[in-house]
Structure formats: structure tokens, C-alpha cells
Design goal:
Elements: E1 10-13, H1 16-23, H2 26-29, E2 32-39, E3 46-49, E4 56-63, E5 65-70, E6 73-78, E7 81-85, E8 91-95, E9 102-109, H3 113-119, E10 127-129, H4 133-149, H5 153-172, H6 178-194, H7 202-208, H8 213-224, H9 228-246, H10 251-257, H11 263-274, H12 278-284
Antiparallel strand pairs: 1-2, 2-9, 3-8, 4-7, 4-9, 5-6, 5-8, 7-10
């Protein structure tokens, strides 16, 4: 593991002896945080575990952006998003170099871990929404403070309660029930993918799946790691790059296909996404294309 260092970085791990003793006590045997930390604007923060970890891992993004690869599937995180990684699951996660995340993490052991994995649907969809993420951030801060001060049984019981509170907030977040919202999320994503040239509002998109705009946004962020409008822009820029690479169409025609009446807006958004102009992208990828 490598991590960008700052004076505000804090991380704590319980010793093997403390963990063994705590898991033998009835009140902390159910759910025990064994490791916890916070990193602020951690531009180099990254971890890879190809064989998975022995404990349940919660990674929560409170600012900036990051990414995760869980069992071979890549997810994008932004503020208010979290990854819940079941024990034994191959994974990697890290900060976005251009917009470093502020991230908190907890490793959890105990008899209740399998039940939490099931309740939160982590094996089906590890990307979750922090419904009240400012409260989640405060609880993460409190947990780290507790572990920094004391590892006696009473302190560990408090840490166990804070961890359960955090997981409870995840379970109660809008869109947190995979069985109830999985079909809606699939429909919502498919609609956006199929209509990249359109610009529906969040209210219009939410009405299609019979949710309020706030619940729709939370569900969509949980499923994709993006807000709906940002996700549509991301897909348009991916489609633009593919068309520039694979087709011989003029750049202005590609922009029109993706719903842009202003070619300068298309160029600005493409540059923001790919760090170069559409023309430079086409040249860089070796295509002998028509100029617009």
C-alpha cells in the first residue's frame, strides 16, 4: 500500500492480541473495527489485494474522486459514494490523481459481518451511496478518535457501536435495497445510455422510474458512482473518443450526433475529459481522418 501523506492523515490498527481478546467478549464479538483511518486529499493513496482481505472493508469518499476495482469490475467514486468489499474478494482502490479524494476506511471482523454483507447486497453491488454522508463523515472521525485514545474493552464497545451506526446509515440510504431498486437502476442507466444526444432533466429521468429526484439521484449514484447528468456527460465523452478513433466523420458531425449544437462547447468538454482537443485525440491515436 502506498499513501499520500499529510498532517491530517490518521490510521490505527488493533494488535492481534487485542483483536483476539475482543472477539472473545460477547459484546464486541458481533462487530469489531480492527483498522480505521482517514486521509485528506490523498493523491497517492492506493491499495491492491489480488487475493482479497480476511475482513469486511468499508471505503467512503467524502470529497474529491477515487476508483475501485472489485472482483474485476471498475467503479468510480465521488463524494457521498462508498465501497463495501466482502471478505475474500479481490480488490484495488485508489485516489484520482487530478481530484484527490478525502477518504475514510474501516476493516470489520465479527459474527455479524456475513449478515451485513447480505443486508447491504455487497456481493451483488459493492458501490453504495452514503445517504447522510456528512453524518457518516462525523462518525468516521469519531471512530478514529476512539481508536486513537483507548483500546480497552469499553472503548472497543463504543467503536463497535459507531461501526454499526455507520452500516445502519448505509442500509437506510435511499436506493440501498438492491432487490427493490435493482430493476429501476438498470432501466435508468439503459435510458441514459440509449439517449446520449438528449438532455433530460433529473426530474424527468426520475419520473420515468417513479422516484423523487433526490431518491433517483441517490440510486443512480449508488449504481454508477456518478450523478445522472455527470454520468451522461461521461458516456458522451467516451462515445466521442470512440467515434474519433474508429470513424472517418468530421468532428462537427460527431458533435452533432451527440447532441451538441455548439462545437466549441463539445471541444471544451472533450478537452476537460481527455486532456486534449478532439483533433489532437484523433491524431494521437493514429487515424488519418477528415478534418472539420
Amino acid at each position: 500500500m502506498s499513501a499520500g501523506k499529510s498532517r491530517s492523515d490518521r490510521r490505527f490498527s488493533l494488535s492481534t492480541a487485542v483483536v483476539t481478546a475482543a472477539l472473545a467478549r460477547p459484546m464486541t464479538a458481533a462487530l469489531l473495527p480492527t483498522d480505521a483511518g482517514l486521509s485528506h486529499r490523498a493523491d497517492l493513496h492506493q491499495r491492491r489485494q489480488p487475493a482479497g482481505a480476511p475482513r469486511l472493508i468499508l471505503v467512503a469518499c467524502f470529497a474529491g474522486h477515487g476508483w475501485g476495482e472489485i472482483a474485476g469490475e471498475r467503479h468510480v467514486l465521488s463524494a457521498g459514494g462508498a465501497l463495501l468489499i466482502p471478505p475474500g474478494t479481490p480488490h484495488a482502490f485508489g485516489s484520482d490523481a487530478r481530484a484527490p479524494w478525502t477518504v475514510g476506511w474501516i476493516h470489520l471482523a465479527g459474527a455479524q459481518v456475513p449478515a451485513w454483507v447480505e443486508v447491504l447486497g455487497a456481493r451483488r453491488q459493492p458501490l453504495l451511496a452514503l445517504g447522510e454522508w456528512h453524518r457518516c463523515a462525523a462518525l468516521m472521525e469519531e471512530l478514529v478518535e476512539v481508536l486513537a485514545r483507548d483500546h480497552r474493552p469499553g472503548a472497543l464497545l463504543a467503536a463497535s457501536g459507531i461501526s454499526a451506526h455507520l452500516l445502519g446509515l448505509l442500509a437506510s440510504a435511499p436506493g440501498a435495497d438492491p432487490a427493490a431498486h435493482g430493476d429501476r437502476a438498470t432501466r435508468a442507466i439503459a435510458y441514459v445510455r440509449a439517449r446520449l444526444a438528449e438532455r433530460p432533466t433529473v426530474a424527468e429521468l426520475a419520473a420515468l422510474v417513479e422516484l423523487s429526484p433526490s431518491h433517483y439521484t441517490a440510486m443512480f449514484r449508488r449504481a454508477t458512482g456518478h450523478a445522472p447528468i455527470a454520468f451522461a456527460l461521461h458516456l458522451r465523452m467516451e462515445a466521442a473518443a470512440r467515434l474519433l478513433r474508429e470513424s472517418r466523420q468530421p468532428i462537427t458531425r460527431i458533435a452533432e450526433q451527440l447532441g451538441y449544437t455548439d462545437p466549441f462547447l463539445f471541444s471544451r468538454q472533450f478537452r476537460a475529459a481527455h486532456d486534449c482537443s478532439p483533433r489532437a485525440w484523433r491524431q494521437r491515436h493514429g487515424q488519418d481522418q477528415h478534418a472539420n
